[in-house]
Specification:
Elements (H helix, E strand, L loop, with lengths): L4 H13 L8 E4 L11 H18 L4 E4 L7 H8 L13 E7 L2 E4 L4 E4 L10 H9 L5 E4 L3 H12 L11 H14 L6 H6 L4 E4 L5 H12 L5 E4 L2 H5 L6 E4 L3 E2 L3 E2 L2 H8 L11 E7 L3 H12 L16 H12 L6 H8 L10 H17 L3 E5 L5 E5 L1 H8 L4 H17 L5 H7 L12 H9 L3 H10 L3 H10 L8 H19 L4 H7 L4 H24 L3 H16 L16 H9 L5 H5 L3 H5 L8 H31 L2
Parallel strand pairs: 1-2, 3-12, 6-8, 6-9, 7-8, 9-12
Antiparallel strand pairs: 3-4, 4-5, 10-11, 13-14
Length: 644
């Protein structure tokens, strides 16, 4: 199984609870250096800690294989994991690193390599550096500091290409544009519409998954030769290039590239089996400060990986560690908790006395808030046990802070939940943490004022205060607040987006309304879907069955962004939101209707997709296979019941 850190955490918690860890033989962690990331590192460390502890407790050793190209303190990590380690500096394609300062290229030592010829309007000499490579039908990756800059750079490069470029692979480019248009339900990004005919595209999180996949495929096939991207592309997507260009030493608006980020970007240069070498070029501003910073960056070592468990804001990671230890039956006493903590990377990097003090504080918090309780056994010793709240938190993979908020909101909703509108239940499945700032509180305040009277009443029930929104709009502050009011208002902004999305309002319309983009909206749906599953599981354990059943129906709606009526059609492989709605509007309301349809009849449906007859035949075939699978499942269920 291949999954995210968060999903792996849920799976491992479930298998620990069901005493099935012996079914796991090997866990492979790619990009192991993520353990030092502030947002997700503590989840990965908790996951590995539980696996390591299980190996001692059950004597079933799960093999852990960690991989990374950017771990300097590998001996520390190996000692923590009780692992052997293997280090190699072998690279199948040699990498030549250089930087551009003024009108010269320099090597990493600061020595001049060659002079560049200036071109009119090409102030950074970017086109020259790109053109040198693509004229031989090789590819170039251009890393930019912001999403906006990736689009601006793609647009800017197009003005330098000769008109003959438009004829190269023209049919392939037209098909790519057509597929992008269909993936986006008829729309297409204006920058891509202009740049793709020149063999240029941008790649960042503002695009949907489908759009990014189409662009990646076109890049692999050399339909696209130049790809502008943000640094995220360096972390997880296999898109190598002959030459990698970093447009700046900065990333985002204020942050400077660190060694790990720089090396990951450079690491994309050189295609095994195609190139005899790869090239990376860092473009620096024409001042001495930038030149010195660039040379230092290119020659710096990686910063050691540090545990995030101890530095999590408000001790969230530490409290979750203690709760997981008790709920997972790893520890029942304070002494056993201290032993469990020794399995963490944190224990290898933080003073033992500090950890002991912090664990006592975490235990006090969990006792006070009702996650755990002290139980006296016959030998008059006190043991720590989880309460139903603690069990629900563990099984749903929530942090204790999240669980308290969810519990409070669900209890309030059980008394006066509004079922005639999606907005109330959508609020319950809007993630609590890791949401972006509200772009404009003034615009947000106007959006709330424009809500129907019924929705405004629901907003008030949730805890949304229009006065607070006005105050935020007047101050112009977009920073998130940790107060209950601030948190509720912040979440509700994203709730409004979810309501539009699951009611099939076009992505571009929602993006414009909320100052967002298609990729961010898709990410919101994905994170909300995961959160909905967590909340539903939490409610089951807490015996809030009515709310759990209501929320579970939103999981698939969030997956596809559709109304309830067309949800069954999205179960057909290859039928997503746009195609499902087209089929529904044409009168095909059930999977059975589609399975029994004639190819010619179905191919007449407007906007079904490219190559209508071939598409119709595939949809009918997949509908029949879906019905057969469902029938087989029913037969197996019936056989099981008869054999009881």
């Amino acid at each position: 199984m291949v999954c995210t850190i968060e999903k792996a955490s849920v799976i491992v918690n479930t298998m620990i609870e069901e005493n099935r860890m012996n079914e796991i033989g090997c866990v492979i962690v790619d990009e192991l250096h993520m353990i030092a990331e502030n947002d997700r590192g503590h989840i990965l460390e908790l996951l590995l800690t539980k696996i390591l502890s299980c190996g001692i407790k059950s004597q079933h050793q799960v093999q852990i294989i960690g991989m990374s190209a950017t771990v300097p303190n590998v001996t520390d990590i190996a000692q923590w994991m009780n692992a052997a380690y293997y280090i190699s500096d072998f690279r199948p394609v040699p990498l030549v690193e250089s930087f551009k300062w003024k009108n010269h290229l320099y090597n990493s030592k600061g020595e001049v390599v060659r002079e560049l010829t200036k071109m009119k309007n090409d102030s950074e000499d970017l086109y020259q550096l790109v053109e040198e490579v693509i004229k031989e039908n090789n590819s170039v990756l251009v890393f930019c500091g912001t999403k906006k800059e990736t689009q601006e750079t793609a647009t800017c490069l197009c003005q330098f290409f000769p008109s003959t470029t438009l004829e190269d692979k023209k049919e392939d480019k037209l098909l790519l544009l057509q597929n992008l248009r269909f993936a986006n339900s008829g729309g297409i990004d204006p920058v891509l519409r202009k740049s793709i005919p020149y063999g240029v595209a941008f790649h960042n999180s503002s695009l949907t998954t489908e759009e990014r996949e189409l662009i990646e495929e076109a890049y692999h096939k050399r339909i696209i030769n130049v790809l502008t991207s943000t640094s995220t592309l360096a972390a997880g997507v296999n898109l190598p290039a002959r030459r990698v260009i970093l447009k700046s030493i900065n990333i985002g608006f204020r942050e400077t590239l660190n060694t790990r980020q720089y090396k990951q970007m450079c690491g994309r240069a050189g295609r095994a089996g195609i190139d005899n070498h790869g090239e990376s070029i860092l473009i620096l501003k024409p001042n001495i400060k930038d030149k010195e910073a660039g040379i230092k960056l290119m020659n710096s070592d990686f910063a050691p990986l540090r545990s995030c468990l101890h530095k999590e804001e408000g001790g969230r990671g530490f409290k979750r560690l203690i709760l997981d230890a008790i709920a997972g039956k790893f520890a029942e006493t304070e002494e056993e908790i201290q032993e469990f903590i020794k399995f963490t990377l944190m224990a290898h990097q933080v003073d033992e006395k500090i950890l002991e003090k912090d664990s006592k504080m975490a235990i006090s918090f969990l006792l006070e808030k009702g996650f755990i309780q002290q139980v006296q056994n016959p030998s008059q010793h006190f043991k720590l046990k989880t309460t139903i709240l603690g069990d629900a938190t563990f099984k749903s993979s929530f942090s204790p802070e999240e669980a308290l908020i969810v519990k409070e909101e669900v209890l309030r909703a059980m008394d006066n939940v509004v079922l005639s509108d999606d907005i109330h239940l959508c609020y319950l499945i809007t993630p609590i943490f890791n949401l972006a700032n509200v772009p404009s509180w003034e615009k947000y305040s106007r959006l709330v004022d424009q809500l129907s009277q019924k929705r405004q009443k629901i907003a008030e029930m949730i805890g949304i205060d229009s006065g607070y929104l006005i105050q935020q709009a007047m101050t112009g502050v977009s920073v998130k607040s940790n107060s209950p009011m601030g948190r509720a208002c912040h979440r509700f902004y994203y709730t409004l987006q979810l309501v539009d999305l699951i009611n099939e309002v076009p992505l571009d319309t929602v993006a414009e309304r909320f100052d967002s983009n298609r990729g961010a909206l898709q990410t919101l749906m994905q994170s909300s879907q995961s959160f909905a599953i967590q909340v539903s599981n939490f409610c089951k354990v807490m015996d809030y069955w009515s709310i759990s059943m209501l929320l579970s129906q939103y999981v698939q709606r969030l997956n596809f962004g559709v109304k309830q009526e067309i949800l069954p059609l999205t179960e057909i492989r290859g039928v997503k939101k746009g195609r499902a709605r087209v089929l529904w509007n044409a009168g095909f309301h059930t999977v059975r209707q589609i399975a029994l349809a004639d190819v010619k009849e179905l191919s007449k449906v407007k906007n079904l997709g490219p190559f209508p007859e071939r598409t119709a035949g595939s949809i009918i075939r997949q509908a029949r296979e879906l019905l057969e699978r469902k029938a087989q499942e029913l037969r197996e269920t019936a056989d099981e019941m008869l054999n009881l």
